[in-house]
User: What shape does this take?
Amino acid sequence: MNRASSVDGLVKEAEDRKVRTRVAEARAEVLPRHELLDGLQVLIRAKVWWIENFSVGTRRRPDHEVSARRRELAVLVQASDLIAGRPEGGGQGDAAGP
Assistant: This one.
């Protein structure tokens, strides 16, 4: 293993430890279902706003970034649907609703 790979590996391990720590801290407080749904709606609205503002026009971001944000939106919406007890596949209800 060359020196760059070794350093990259050490950096990744340190980052992974930080992520595991923050995830464990986030799990420590159990949130009620309505707070989870409310929090997801905040994230969904922010993601929609980002896509609307940065997918077209003079502030347009690269296609791969827009695609990544759309994928993240799908994850958030589907997680919200699962927590709310909506059937998988979503249906055609109000996308911004809990």
The helical segments are 3-28, 33-54, 63-84. The chain has a mean pLDDT of 91. The chain has two domains: 1-30, 31-98. Residues 31-98 form one domain.
